[in-house]
Amino acid sequence: MPDYQILFLDIDGTILRPDHSIEASTKIAITEMKRKGIEVVLATGRPLHELQELATELEVNSFISYNGSYAVYNGQEVFKKHIDSTVIENYIAIASQHHHDLILYSSTENILVNPKSRKTHDFLKHFLFTKNKPFTNNDVNEIFSATLITNHHGEREHYPTDNGVILSPINVDGMSHSFDLLVADINKGIAVKAMLKALNIPAKSAIAFGDGLNDKEMLALVGEGVAMGNSNPGLFQYANFTTTDVYHSGIYNGLKQLGLLPS
Hints:
Layout: E1 6-9, H1 24-35, E2 39-43, H2 52-58, E3 63-65, E4 70-73, E5 76-80, H3 85-97, E6 101-105, E7 110-112, H4 118-127, E8 132-134, E9 145-149, E10 165-169, E11 178-183, H5 188-199, E12 206-210, H6 216-221, E13 224-227, E14 241-242, H7 250-257
Parallel strand pairs: 1-2, 1-12, 2-3, 7-8, 12-13, 13-14
Antiparallel strand pairs: 3-4, 4-5, 6-7, 6-9, 9-11, 10-11
Helix pairs in contact: 1-7
């Protein structure tokens, strides 16, 4: 069996079910990996400042957040990349023109361009985001990522993506018209690579689980990329194999298939 040293886990649709609950088998699996000396890293599109409750529950202290724009290993910064402020200003102008919503993510807060919007509040409620503040003109700097909430899926075409950013659909039920605004060429895979280099761990010794298209680079990079059974269909081609879904012990069963957990 390969010498696995580190495990990267997506959160939504991988650790967390849509109702934000975590299967007991997932907690057991994470505890057992740590007992075996395998590093566990949460790798998510969520902002770092919204991970503390989950991190405490799972006793995990290392993170890749904002879909790869910021990585921290046991409190030590490993990688970071901000979105250019002029891009943020342009997106705010377009969103205002089309009555769309934007939520900007700094290292400490969720910054609400339309703080009174129902769509914004529904999004924050769905993901249980609480560290929120209204937007000011000073907030365009040091933004790691953002959420664009349109009225219909096709309205993403109003936004340019030849300016150093991409729009990635959010793979969550009821969020088909919402998109992650990310730094182009920065993804979870880039951050995973930076963390592996910092820890001197070869990619073949890494495992990653995910369910969304924002996980594809991460799954393709590591030695064992595992797609959840509930994954976006486009993700399966990047994985070594598919496990069961987030409702049926997907993480536990995937690690069992790798020989790291008992049947």
